[in-house]
Amino acid sequence: SHTFAICAYGESPYLEACIRSLKRQTVKTRIILCTSTPGAFLENLAARYKLSLYIREGASDIQEDWNFAYGKADTDLVTIAHQDDCYHRDYARTLLECWERYPDTTVFMTDCRILKGNRLQKPDGVWRVKRLLRMPLRLHRLCHRTWVKRAALVLGNPVICPSCTYHKGTLGEPLFQSPNKFALDWDTLWRLAGEPGRFLCVERPLLYYRIHDGATTKACIV
C-alpha cells in the first residue's frame, strides 16, 4: 500500500545511504528510483539493490521530477524521498499505523533531525520555530479542518518536505501544480489544505534531513 519514490539527480554520494535506510524499514514497502539524469551510477545502484529505475525525458525540473516520481508509484500512499536524506527504520510502520487510525489522512508528516554532512546537529532556533508552527497539526482529531491545516502554514512553511507521504488515491495527479520554483511544496500544501482530508503530523524525528553544499535547497536560497 506504500511506495518510497526516490528522486535521484546526478551522482549523489549520499544516495546509497538513503536507499539503505529504506531497505532497513521494519515494515517492508516498495522502493523505486526515479531520475531525469540517467547514467551508469544510477543503473548500478538500481541493480545492486534490485530497484526499478524510471527515467524521465526532458530537462531536470524539481516540480516535473517530483510529479514524475509520484506518478510512477502504483500504490495509494507515496513518499517522495530525497536522495540526500535518510529515514528512521520506523517511518513506514508509524505511517501505516496512523493511516489505519485516520484513513481520511491526505498528508502525513514528521519531525526531523539535521545532518550536516554526516554529523548529527543539535536542535537550533529554526527547529524550535518549526515545531511551534506545526502545533495545530498535532491536534489529530481536528486537523481535517481547513482552518487548522492552514493555521500551521500561514506564517511560513514548517513542514519538512521529504518527511511527507501523500494519499495518491485521494489527491490524484499531478500533485504539484505551482508556479514557484522554490516554495512549491508550501504552495502545494496550502492548496491541499483547502481540500477534504486530514494533515497528520507525528512529532518524532523519523527523517534525517541532510544539509550540504550541493543541496538543491541551499542553491535555491542562494
Could you characterize what this model shows?
The protein has 222 residues and is an alpha/beta fold. It has helices at residues 15-23, 40-48, 62-72, 91-101, 125-133, 146-151, 168-171, 184-193, 216-221, and strands spanning 2-8, 30-35, 52-55, 77-82, 86-87, 105-116, 119-120, 165-167, 198-211. Helix 2 links the parallel strand 2 and strand 3. The mean pLDDT is 94.
Keywords:
222 residues; alpha/beta; 25% strand
| Percent strand | 25-35%
How many strand units? 9
Distance between the termini: 38 Å
Helix/strand structural class: alpha/beta
Estimate the global geometry from the Cα principal axes.
globular
Topology order in helix (H) and strand (E) letters: EHEHEHEEHEEHHEHHEH
What's the tally of helices?
9
In which range does the helix fraction lie? 25-40%
- Summarize the biggest pleated sheet: 9 strands, mixed
From the alpha carbons, calculate the radius of gyration and give it in angstroms: 16 Å
Question: What's the rounded overall pLDDT mean?
Answer: 94
Outline the low-pLDDT stretches. Answer: none
